[in-house]
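Provenance and format

Records in this collection were gathered into a single text stream. Each protein contributes a sequence line and a token line. The two records reproduced below are adjacent in the stream.
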Amino acid sequence: MTIADIKVPDSVLAKEATELVRDTADELIFHHSRRVYLFGALQGNRRGLSYDAELLYMGAMFHDLGLTEKHRTSTRRFEIDGAEDAKEFLLARGVTEDAARVVWEAIALHTTPEIPTYMAPEIALVTAGVELDVLGIGYDEIADEQRAAVVAAHPRPDFKRRILQAFNDGIAHRPDTTFGNIKADVLARYTEGYVRPNFVDVITESRWPE
């Protein structure tokens, strides 16, 4: 399958990953994850980057699995849950440790601005795909017809409201994991009683006397 001139990987590994995400996540996360791959690949082509499409696909497809019901009792950051799921999946299918590590880092860092840009192309492009689909960063860098083709294949009805709700649902039970990252903004808006930790207070109120 080709969407917006981007070929979607169709290896056995890619098909199994697609099936796993279909079975584990809801339609919102599935379509979002596919758009992340497509937008990441489009940005990679635009930037002239050489990337492994299959590894980029793995990072994109697994990047939000930490928000799913499977991890509703987890106390880790949701990014790490998704990264660990991907690593386990890949290693069980004979993918090398080095390649699995690239996917792990792509997922673990996808909510950390700027740093992924200086890492392996697959890591940078998972973040680029997320930023375009969720935040609109790079929206005008992609041709209108390419954007339209991606959304036609993977629609985003009421996406802004629904993805924010999905973020909240996936992290509300582990609010401490949002300290120092952008997901604190989600809980501050949608979870009653959430108090955002303050980095300065953490330092000044630590057990050190001075």
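Adjacent record:
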Amino acid sequence: MTGTTLVVVGLGNPGPGYAGNRHNVGQMVLDELAARMGATFKKHKTPNQVAEGRLVPGGPKLVLAKPGSFMNTSGGPVSSVLGFYSATPEDLIVVHDELDLPYDTVRLKGSGGHGGHNGLRDIIKATGTNEFTRVRIGIGRPPGRQDPADYVLRDFSPTEKKTLPNLLADGADAVEAIAELGLLAAQQRVHAPS
């Protein structure tokens, strides 16, 4: 994290038909962050919905961005919002769903591959680097032989919905910790057993 502006991207698909899908959990976390900042998402000059604000007075400015494209073409909108704010991938935090983590788990990662996640794949391609921070929101593996592509495009189950607000709050807390403490200290806080 180099600058005083951090770009926080929540991955998902556009439109109300996808809003409750597991794949859109990154955008749900951004809604929680915007509410904490008293900010509202608006159309932007880049192909994103953007909300701006600070979590604490004197803290870094957060630019919350929801790409206006589908998940697998997230790279263009992410690249354009970074350019608009003169931010680098070092100032980028991507919040996304993660099949390889159990539901209700949040993990932070500083860099790495895309792990089969098409949104991350496209961001790495568009920015030319995998050196950006990720907030991985665990959605668990699909039951039985259900296709993962079908699973991520379904809404959370009634049981999951009961604890979803806690998961979204945990994701927002993780972004706050990164903004306040930096990645390593945030990882220690978020990953420490409670």
